[in-house]
């Protein structure tokens, strides 16, 4: 993204029903450190701990929904 490597790893558990969403930005000068800027919410710089209420606010936003043909076109462009 913008010429920087950013990673994302998501664990979705069935029982108990939990989601662990881990994101990172590559910095060759750092082994591991929390980021001290906000990601989505201002309340938790360095990490985002979401409550159900916070998630509902994000999910209430209007999102672009791709058609199957649009998704197929994107996938084909990456092969």
Q: How would you describe this structure to a colleague?
A:
This protein has 79 residues and is α+β, with helices and mostly antiparallel strands. The chain has one domain (6-78). The chain is built from 2 helices and 2 strands. The chain has helices at 52-59, 68-78, and strands at residues 6-13, 18-25. The protein has a two-stranded antiparallel ribbon. Strand 1 (6-13) and strand 2 form a beta hairpin. The radius of gyration is 16 Å and the shape is extended.
What's this, in brief?
With 79 residues, this protein is of the alpha+beta class. Helix content is 24%, strand content 20%. It is extended.
Which key features would you list for this structure?
2 strands; 79 residues; two-stranded antiparallel ribbon; 2 helices; alpha+beta; single chain
Layout of helices and strands, plus pairs?
Blueprint: E1 6-13, E2 18-25, H1 52-59, H2 68-78
Antiparallel strand pairs: 1-2
């Amino acid at each position: 993204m913008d010429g920087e490597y950013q990673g994302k790893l998501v664990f979705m558990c069935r029982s108990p029903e939990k989601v662990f969403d881990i994101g990172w930005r590559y910095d060759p000068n750092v082994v591991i450190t929390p980021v001290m800027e906000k990601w989505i919410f201002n309340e938790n710089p360095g990490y985002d701990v979401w409550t159900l209420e916070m998630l509902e606010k994000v999910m209430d936003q209007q999102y672009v929904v791709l058609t199957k043909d649009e998704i197929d076109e994107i996938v084909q462009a990456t092969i």
